[in-house]
Each structure stands twice: as structure tokens, then as C-alpha cells.
Structure of Molybdopterin molybdenumtransferase:
Amino acid sequence: MTARGTREDRDADDLDVEEALALVNDGNGFDRGPARVPAAAPAEGHEGRRSRAHDTSHRATPWPEARAVAARAGRAAGARRTPVSVTLDAALGLVLAAPLTALTDLPSFDTSAMDGWAVAGPGPWDVRDEGVLAGQTGPDTLADGEAVRIATGARIPADTTAVLRSEHGRLDEKGRLHASPEPSPGQDIRPRGQECRNGDQLLPNGAVITPAVLGLAAAAGYDTLAAVPRPRVEVLVLGDELLIEGRPHDGLIRDALGPMLPPWLRALGAEVVAVRRLGDDAKALQRAVSSSLADLIVTTGGTAGGPVDHVHPVLRRLEAELLVDGVTVRPGHPMLLARLADGRHLVGLPGNPLAAVSGLLTLAEPLLGALATRAAPEPYTLPLRDAVHGHPYDTRLIPVVLRGDAAVPLHYNGPAMLRGIAAADALAVVPPGGARAGQEAELLDLPWAAAGIGACFT
Ligand SMILES: Nc1nc2c(c(=O)[nH]1)N[C@H]1C(S)=C(S)[C@@H](COP(=O)(O)OP(=O)(O)OC[C@H]3O[C@@H](n4cnc5c(N)ncnc54)[C@H](O)[C@@H]3O)O[C@H]1N2
Ligand code: MOO
């Protein structure tokens, strides 16, 4: 694993990072003491409670395996999806469903690479009256001893020997053109087909459609591209205690996941077709799941075993197959992945907001990537600047900021807290037992941290 995604030139950003760190690490400060890994220290938010995952470890899936199961499920379903034809302006971020093959030679005609004169034979030259601009047709041919004014990108007349750059040419008092220095044959002419010939493969099937690919496709003659469609996702927000506006009151709290998940899912390449708030109504949940046309349904809350935790019973009634039922990860251990009877998938995110993020990155991200046939990002590691307490049996995901060559763990990383993740660049994967200061940890990038907020929300 290699380091990447670090911010080397931080001078301008240092203030921001310090501010972010102060806000999310205040009070407690950093643990700057000697490296130590407190054995079996419970993860924040679980003090005094026996681990449910521990109790049910016979069926909880180890964290790395859970990601692999989700990716496998996505690949199998992705292979059955039909490619679509999309206009260039709708194709950003999708994956090519067919090789990009040139529809023309590029350049498609012999082209001037400079502003100056097209010249034929040795100078001095008689200059023809007309000139040729890009997009215009000039004289078909030049006779020996003739020159014509030409602009960059304009078509070269037949029998042109070279293009003489304007700064290398001088007109004498009789209007004859002299060169200094003389252009060599072929100089500053881009010959037809220099970049590719009609039919050449420019990019393979499976390439991600980046802005540069859109440019290349347009240059090569494309108006539409064959692409793997965005996975369609429907979000079902469960919980009677949720408010959609105003301040929390009387035991009611604001829905943090309704606003957070749709843009995050879009940043992961999904098309969010609907966000529905269903309360704690098992029948409504069953109806919504069975009638959804989405490739992936994401539910929030209701994954545990409480009296109104309806996700498991509804999945049982729908005869869904639980591919992952609990993961040995903190936060987020009650997360689940199910395959519905008709082959669509459902990811159940726990209701605690950081636990939901954990489920999103553990199950939804690999599944969506594979459904879109996008290659999984190369894993990478960075040393942790400070020691991180571990869970005795489970992996922990901890919000970090990337600073120089290190990942700085943030506090406020409890399952119900978003304060740490809101300031973070990535989540660090902390193995069971914890990590020492300086220990390398795998990092899961947040989609906006590397690409910028505008770049990833297409
Ligand atoms: N007896 C046990 N109880 C719980 C265990 C356990 O092991 N044994 N695990 C705890 C853990 S860990 C989690 S995580 C939660 C998961 O529970 P659910 O998925 O059933 O989620 P809810 O009970 O519906 O909600 C949990 C918590 O999150 C708040 N919430 C829910 N939705 C939202 C939202 N959209 N925005 C903001 N906050 C939300 C909800 O009010 C609860 O406070 O189970 C524990 N229990
Ligand atoms: O550990 Mo839970 O899954 O609160 O987040």
C-alpha cells in the first residue's frame, strides 16, 4: 500500500486545519504521550455495555470481508445491467460500456500548428492575396514559390512544404516573403492522423469518463457515449422521533441522515431517485421496499432488535437473503446487506449517524462502485499521528484529517456524533486492539476530500 492523497503544501491551509482540529479536539487535546495501545479499551460510546457484535459474533461478518461481499454482490448485479447511450453532458463519472474508438482521423486534415504562412518550395515566396483562418477553406494547392497567410488550426493547402511562423518571416518592399531561419520541410504542420486514425481504439471498455475523456470523445466525433448507467438508489429514512426542521424538542431530534445521505450517495456515483421518510411503520416499509424500482434501497435506523426496529422482520417477510447481517466494526456494527428476491439490494444503515456513515463506506460504497463497474480505489495507508484506542474484537473507523504525511485522529467520533466526520478528510481503519502513534493505518477517503466539493457532485 502506498501513501497518496496527502496534502503536502499546506501553508495556506494550515490555519484551516488548525481551526478544524481545535474545534473537534478541544478540551481533551491530543494524546501526545508515549505510544501505547490500550488493550481491550471499549470504543467511545460503548462503555459499560456488552458488545452486541460480540454476543452475535457467530454471524457478524469481519469488516474486510463485509466490503468484499458487498463488492461481489455489486459485480454480479452489475454484469446484468444494460448499457445506455448518454449525451456527453450527462456522461461525467460514468464508465464506458464499449471501447472509445476514433470516428475520424485526428487531426482530420493536415493542420497548421502556428500562425504564419504556408510556403511551398524554397523562399523567397510570392504571397497570395487570400489568407486561411481556422475553419475556412483556403487555396487547394500552392505552387512552388508561393506562400499564403495561415492561422493556427487552419487546413494546409496541398503541396505546402512547411509553415513559416510569423516571427520568422519578413515582407520586403515588393511584398515578397523572406524567412530567417528557413523552415525545415514539414515544420509546424500537424499531419492528418498524427494522433489517431479512424477506427483506432483510444480508450478501453471500462474507462471512467473524466472531463478529459469527454474532451477526447468530442474531438473524436462523438455526440453520445455507451456507458454503464448510474445505479439508482432510493433512501428510506425510518424513525418516528425525527424532525425535518427546527430545533430538537420533547425527545424529538432532527433527521441528520435525510440531508446527508443523498449528496453523499451522488458523490459515490449514484442517482438518488427518492428520499422517503416512513417513520416506524413496518407496513409502510414493506410496501416501500417491495414497490421500489431502485437498484439499491438504503434504509436508515431500525436495524437493531428494539421494539420498532422493523428492518429484519420486513426482510424476513420479503424472503430476502441476508448477505451481511452485522459487521465487526465500530461504529455501525448492526449494518446489513440483503439481496431481495428479485435480485435488487438493500443496505440497512444503523440509525446512529456516524454508524450510518460507517455502513455507507463499508457496504454501500463497494456495492455502488461494482454496480457502476468502476474499479475499486487502490487501498493506501498513512501513519497515525496519535495512538487510537481499539475495540477488543472489532475494527474501528475513526475520522482523521490528513496533515503532511500523517493522519491526525479526531475526537467526537462516537456513533451518534457527526462533529468529527464533518471536519475530516478520511476515515482511518483501526484494527482490533487499537493502533500506536506512528502505526500505518488504511484510509478511506471521503469523496469530496480528494476531488473538491464541486468535482465529485456531478
Ligand atoms: N440492546 C442493544 N441495543 C442497541 C445495540 C445493541 O448492540 N444492543 N446497538 C446499538 C447500536 S451500536 C446502534 S448503531 C443502534 C442501531 O440501531 P438502529 O439501526 O435500530 O437505529 P435506531 O434505533 O432507529 O436509532 C439509533 C439512534 O440513532 C438515531 N437516529 C435514527 N435515525 C436518525 C436520523 N435519520 N438522524 C439522526 N439520528 C437518527 C435515533 O434517534 C437513535 O438515537 O442500536 C443501538 N442499540
Ligand atoms: O456502534 Mo453503533 O453501530 O452505535 O454505532
